[in-house]
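Z., the sequence and structure:
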Amino acid sequence: MTMQTEDSQTTAPRPKRVRRTGPYKAGDARREAILEAAIEHFSQWGYFNSSMPKIAAEVGLTKAGLIHHFGSKEALLSAVLELRDQRAVSAFFAEDFRNDPLRYFRQVAAQAAFNESQPGLTQMFTILAAESSNEEHPAHEFFRQRYANIIEHTSALLDKMVAAGTLLPGTDVRQVASEMLAVVDGFTIQWALAKPPISLHDTIRNYLDRLAKSITTNGRGLDD
C-alpha cells in the first residue's frame, strides 16, 4: 500500500538518538551504504532477482562482509522495507492537510506517482505483501503491523475531517480507510501485471476523485 498516515508521524514515540563514534559510526555508515545499494538493486531487479554478492561488491564488501552487517537476505529485505516506509512517511506528510480531504487525496495520488517511478521496488513490495500472508514469511509481522497501522491512523485522520465538517457526518471512516487500502493495493497489483502498462497514478487518482465527490460535504472532486 502506498498510503501513509499522519499519526504514524505525529504520535509515534521517537527513539532517542545515541551519538556514535569510532568503529560504531563507521559501521552505521557502512550499513547505510548497503541499504542504499540494496534499494537500488531491489528497485531495478526485484527481491528475488537481486544478488547479495553484487550488492556487497557495490559497497566494497564480500558477501560474507554483507552478512556480517545484515545476517541474511531476508534481514536485509526487512531493513529496506522499514527504510522505505520511513522515507515515504516523510514525503507524504511534507504537506499540511488542514483537515482538507482534497489535499489528502491528492497527496495519496502523488504517492502513487512516486511508487510508479520505482517499478522494481514497488512490484517487489506488492509481491511480498501477498506472500507475507504466510505466518512463516520473514516479512509477515512487518506487513501485518503495517496494514493495521494504516487503517487505524487513516481512520483517525478522516475522523478529524468529519469533526471539522469537511467530510459528511456519519461517514464510516474505518470502512473508507479499509476500502482505500484495498483499492490502492488492488490497482497496484493490476499495474504490476498489465502489459502494456497502465498509469498507476491516473487510475488511483480517478478512484479518489469519485470517492471525494461521494463523501466531502461540498461534493467536490480533485479537479474542482
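The first helix runs from residue 6 to 10. DSSP finds ten helices and no strands in the chain.

Let me know what you think.
H.
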